[in-house]
Amino acid sequence: MEIEQSAFVLHSRPYRETSALVTFFTPDYGKINGVVRGVRGGRKTASQKTAMLQPFQQLTLQWREKPNNRSDLLSIQQIEMGSLRFPLQAEGNICGLYVNELLYRLLFPQVATEALFDLYQQTLYQLLSAEKRNDQAWSLRQFEHLFLAEMGHGIQCDEDINQQPIQPEQAYFFYPQYGAVLASLDSQKQGLAIQGECLLAMQEMRYCEECLPSLKKLYRWVLAHYLGDKPIMTRELFN
User: Fold this and answer.
1) Within 13 Å of residue 137, how many CA atoms lie on the same side as its CB?
2) Using one digit for the tens of pLDDT, what is the confidence trace for 57-99?
């Protein structure tokens, strides 16, 4: 059966002599790994394919689904440019690469993620239109929050672990495995310190400039629980 999908490139690396092993993000098949032939070499078609396999531009892929195929490695038969392109520059480009890295590392292969695909495009739109660093930061926090929810690891920001409403004026400690604990009741105090106002702002998707540094720490803390010991490489680009 012939499959056709809209897609964005998440990651690409050389494969054998003239091919590339490319991880794509699609709406109906989620993250897929495909071999694209004729990418490297002196031919004009190789240069054209290389130009297409850049981040943040929509592609249309075609491949043949083989019955009883146990491998998740697909042979991409055809690639065409789509109508969308997000020419992210400077820090906006790094933010986009960070989003790509999260998807590349945390998504399971070939799991349908249409809502997440829409969220990804929306985030690229926001990064493209961002006028200042705080706009970029807020776009990333929204993506991280909704991405974790789509992955089944959503953060509870309106109630603490005792199912009591978060109080904006109170201080909390947040634990990735459990949630928020009222600071005055937490004997361990080993979680991430955060104000209730910032948790509620995230729950309501309400921009709060004062909360951005705390929310950045919060999502770095939570994502580290799922990413393991290997650091996010795109964070080094900011340094």
Assistant:
1) 19
2) 999 999 988 776 667 789 899 999 999 999 999 999 999 999 9
Q: Are 103 and 24 in contact (CB under 8 A)?
A: no
3-class secondary-structure state, position 197: helix
Q: What are phi and psi of 54, to 5 degrees?
A: -105, 155
The answer, yes or no, to whether residue 48 has pLDDT greater than 90, is no
Cβ-in-10-Å burial (0-12, 13-18, 19+) of 215 comes to: buried
Query: Which three-class secondary structure state does DSSP give residue 237?
Result: helix
| One-character DSSP codes across 130-186 | --SHHHHHHHHHHHHHHHHHHTT-----SB-TTSPBPPTTSEEEEETTTEEEEGGG-
User: Which candidate, 179, 21, 171, places its Cα nearest to that of 104?
Assistant: 21
Region at 46 (left for phi over 0; alpha for psi -120 to 50; beta for the rest): alpha
Packing angle of the helix pair 90-106, 133-150 (nearest 10 deg): 10
